[in-house]
Amino acid sequence: MTHLNTQPNFGTPGQRPLHAFTPGDDFYEALIEAHRGLDDDTSRLLNARLVLLLANHIGDLRVLHEALHAARNGLGTAAAA
To answer: DSSP state, 22?
Structure first.
C-alpha cells in the first residue's frame, strides 16, 4: 500500500486557489527566493535543513521511506554516476 502522496497537494487550509498550479508555483518561487544570494555550499546546507525539518513534520516513517525510494528512483542514470 502506498502512503506517499505524489499528486499536487499544495495549498493553504481553508483557501481554494483560482488555478490549480498556483500554490505549487508559489512554493517554487519561495524556494528559489530562499536560495537567492547563497553560495553552493550554503545552498546545499539549506536543502539539507529543509529536508530534515519537513521529514520531522511528516514523521510517518512509511511515508518517509517511500519518499526516499521515489526520489532515488527518479534520479535515473544520474544515481549510478
So the answer is: H
Cell of 39: 553560495
Burial 29-63 (b: 16+ CB within 10 A, else e): eeeeeeeeeeeeeeeeeeeeeeeeeeeeeeeeeee
Nearest to 27 by CA among 10, 42, 44: 10
User: Which residue do the cell numbers 554516476 mark?
Assistant: 81
The size of the chain, in residues, is 81
Cell of 34: 530562499
Place of cell 490549480: 20
The tens digit of pLDDT for each residue in 55-73 reads 999 999 999 999 999 999 9
pTM (whole model) above 0.85:
no
Q: C-alpha grid cell for residue 9? A: 497537494
Nearest by Cα to 45 from 35, 55, 30: 35
